[in-house]
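User: structure tokens for this one?
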Amino acid sequence: MTGTSYRRSAELAGIVGPYDGFAQNAEPHTRVMRKHQAANDAVRTVHSMDIAVHREATKQWAQNLEVGTTNGWRNAQASVLAPTGCLTADTLVTTDRGLVRLGELGDVWGDRWQDLDAQVSTDEGPRQATKFFVNGEEPTRRIVTKGGYTIQGTLAHRIKVVDPETGAWEWKRMADVTADDLVPDAARHDGRRAAPGAAAGAGPGLLHR
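Assistant:
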């Protein structure tokens, strides 16, 4: 994402010019871009999804330097926030306060980031949640298992599904879940086949540490 942002900044500089003071900072700025590229090149992937993301990141950093060396950059710095996936406010969450709806842990109409002090259950055991995140209005997808259980979240939200070959639990985005996927049910310690549908709504989420 950062490489793409800087590449776009370099393209913009070709239209309206680089940021004020770039001429004096051209060499160190370019050197920092090369350090970013080198750090990306040093990344070692461990999963097929990582390989695809790393391949695209490598391409973006290369294009960024190719364009930026000619045009400079419009922005001296770039900050990016990765898109997060969220569930709808009526989602039930197991916490140290008992089984509560996600919307009860924070104010869905409040600030985007809200402090939170709660233990939540995960497949790796209880974890401390430190922030309540309000994603705002965004398209969601509703997954209904054949057993009648429902989960609804944004398209980027990930849930665990069972790999049919290894039996291992692996992450999958809501947008990519199919009717053939087996969704683990923590309460029953088994899985349920998914029957995906579509919906729209807002999604809050939790940030773990």
